[in-house]
Design brief:
The chain is mainly alpha-helical. Helices cover 74% and strands 4% of the residues.
Length: 143
Amino acid sequence: MNLEGLLNNKMIESIETDDKLVKKSVNSASRDLKTAKVVLENENYDWSLAIAYNAMLQAGRALMFSRGYRPVGEYKHVAVVEFVHSEFGKEITNNMVDIFNRLRKKRHKVIYEEVDIVTPSEAENAIKFAEEFVNKVKSILKI
């Protein structure tokens, strides 16, 4: 979905850009990456994946805030994924956005539907992809 569609469907709204909010979101993403690694070491794979995904979500939100938008409504996580794809598709590959979206769906299952469904390798890969995504966002934002 493009920017106009996100606005028309009331999935995002305009806000004033706020460098402090951008930086706070990036810092949260970095913190979540560290936490996901600790949780992985403790063999809690579901939560490790969920926290790695949250790092990606916070980084995606930082991109939104940098452009003067924020997610609203019932589907905020979807809005972040769609915004990143629409507005940063040249910098962030389709593959990376697809992984972001798959982790969003897996995290939803872990939180709301099933437990103990994430394998050690899935959790490790989630952290690896989240780290790549967060580093890419930092590069884009020059942080």
